[in-house]
Known about the structure:
- The protein is mostly helical.
- The protein has helices spanning 3-6, 9-30, 38-47, 51-54, 72-95, 102-112, 123-146, 157-175, 187-190, 193-218, 246-261, 267-294; strands spanning 66-68, 154-156.
- A two-stranded antiparallel ribbon has the order 1-2.
Amino acid sequence: xxxxxxxxxxxxxxxxxxxxxxxxxxxxxxxxxxxxxxxxxxxxxxxxxxxxxxxxxxxxxxxxxxxxxxxxxxxxxxxxxxxxxxxxxxxxxxxxxxxxxxxxxxxxxxxxxxxxxxxxxxxxxxxxxxxxxxxxxxxxxxxxxxxxxxxxxxxxxxxxxxxxxxxxxxxxxxxxxxxxxxxxxxxxxxxxxxxxxxxxxxxxxxxxxxxxxxxxxxxxxxxxxxxxxxxxxxxxxxxxxxxxxxxxxxxxxxxxxxxxxxxxxxxxxxxxxxxxxxxxxxxxxxxxxxxxxxxxxxxxxxxxxxxxxx
Length: 310
């Protein structure tokens, strides 16, 4: 692995994001005694969204930056379109032997700095991860539109802009993993145990997340499926008996499953996993604290994010 690849722009980007969310988690844990400070309120306004934001005592000027949380589906719509487009280009590159568009090749040059000859990532892994990322986005889009019941919660406009750009960068990160490498032989000859294991892991983690989203939605719907309330209730059933936010934990598992599809060979993707770990841990911690403060009977044995750990 070359020094240039170690210091590639995309790796610096994901490392920076991981450090930012780790710092945010640490600051949140340590800043509880400064709840009346205006800087504390601004900080909390930036890291919270949805139900965790509703009880935050904010100045009116901060509400100007609110975007409805129900706009979450925009993120997945962008991802389905963009990563579907990238997947099509990569399929043409793989099977039709067409060159990647110059703008895309140039972007990957700028971001990854890794030539195909230097990459250890099988081309099949890149193709599968791009496909699974698209499938994940499609499922989450359908869940947002057809399963989830959103309240009047909000998110910060910066969170909204970040979410729109997130999957665009993520798709480019996937394609930059082998940076146009031809791979060793045909795609079928590249098939290995870790492709099968990673795919199975991905399916299991996706089912866990879907089950969690269904259980959350049922807190607000009746037996007929119609919405009965927008109030927040204590989630039960499934992995909610172990952690407050199994949907966040399963998100981490999905990204780990894609690392397995890479055979653990993509250092860049492990940086993405590290970012997801700290990002989802922060969101889970905020939800967990809300449940504990709001419901006296909330099960104390539940962890926030990772069963039996955190």
